[in-house]
């Protein structure tokens, strides 16, 4: 009996060291060498200061920026999650209707049935950093007007949307998307030209 307990404790200690210390250190080292940006959070710097991550959505609600997908958690990465409203929830219906009206009104959209779903529904994590290129294109006229851009700058914005659009992951997971933070950084660069 004592030898079985001693054997079990030795095995437990060995597995703790192997899976709790050696393996995590090995994977951290491999990640730092092979994928240093991703291993450190895919951080985005502006003027040497961290302004966000490519992986976490941020709130943009000014008329001079592309708007992000709504978040049920106010873009707070700590409690990451959704609203948990069901499809028959009156609160969810009100939120969606309010978002649809606000987006359509702000972007001068006549047929609010054409608004992409990501602009009216929050994501499951509440932190999705992407919108579809269609959602970005619907916001161009508002941004051009708010920034008082001419037609040349408008065309540059359209070129940026095309340039930053990413296809489905591995060519078949998901839809075409564009990172809102990257898009807005490019928009600020255009504004300085």
Structure description:
The chain has 193 residues and is mostly helical. The protein folds into two domains: 2-36; 42-192, no CATH class. 50% of the residues lie in helices and 7% in strands. It has six helices and four strands, in the order ααββαβααβα. It has helices at residues 2-34, 36-39, 90-106, 133-147, 151-164, 180-192, and strands spanning 43-46, 49-53, 130-131, 178-179. It has a two-stranded antiparallel sheet. The chain has a two-stranded antiparallel sheet with strand order 3-4. α4 (133-147) packs antiparallel against α5 (151-164) and α5 (151-164) packs antiparallel against α6 (180-192). The longest helix is centred in the N-terminal third of the chain and has 33 residues, at 2-34. The relative contact order is 0.12. The mean pLDDT is 91.
What's the structural blueprint in terms of helices and strands?
Layout (H helix, E strand, L loop, with lengths): L1 H33 L1 H4 L3 E4 L2 E5 L36 H17 L23 E2 L1 H15 L3 H14 L13 E2 H13 L1
Antiparallel strand pairs: 1-2, 3-4
Give a nutshell description of this structure.
The chain has about 190 residues and is mainly α.
Keywords for this entry:
single chain, 193 residues, 2 domains, two-stranded antiparallel ribbon, two-stranded antiparallel sheet, 6 helices
Straight-line N-to-C gap: 79 Å
Poorly predicted segments: none
The percent range for strand residues is 5-15%
Give the structural class.
mainly alpha
Apparent shape: elongated
- Spatially, the strands of the biggest sheet line up as 1-2
Rounded to an integer in angstroms, the radius of gyration calculated over CA atoms is: 23 Å
């Amino acid at each position: 009996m004592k030898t079985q307990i001693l054997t079990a404790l030795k095995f437990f200690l060995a597995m703790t060291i192997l899976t709790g210390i050696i393996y995590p250190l090995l994977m951290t080292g491999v990640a730092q060498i092979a994928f240093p940006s991703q291993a450190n959070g895919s951080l985005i710097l502006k003027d040497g200061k961290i302004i966000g991550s490519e992986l976490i959505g941020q709130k943009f609600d000014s008329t001079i920026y592309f708007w992000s997908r709504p978040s049920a958690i106010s873009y707070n990465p700590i409690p990451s999650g959704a609203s948990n409203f069901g499809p028959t929830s009156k609160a969810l219906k009100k939120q969606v209707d309010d978002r649809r009206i606000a987006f359509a009104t702000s972007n001068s959209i006549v047929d609010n049935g054409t608004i992409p779903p990501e602009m009216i529904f929050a994501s499951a994590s509440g932190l999705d950093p992407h919108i579809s290129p269609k959602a970005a294109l619907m916001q161009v006229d508002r941004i051009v007007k708010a920034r008082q851009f001419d037609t040349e700058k408008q065309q540059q914005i359209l070129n940026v949307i095309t340039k930053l659009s990413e296809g489905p992951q591995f060519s078949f997971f998901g839809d075409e998307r564009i990172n809102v933070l990257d898009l807005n950084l490019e928009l600020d660069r255009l504004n300085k030209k």
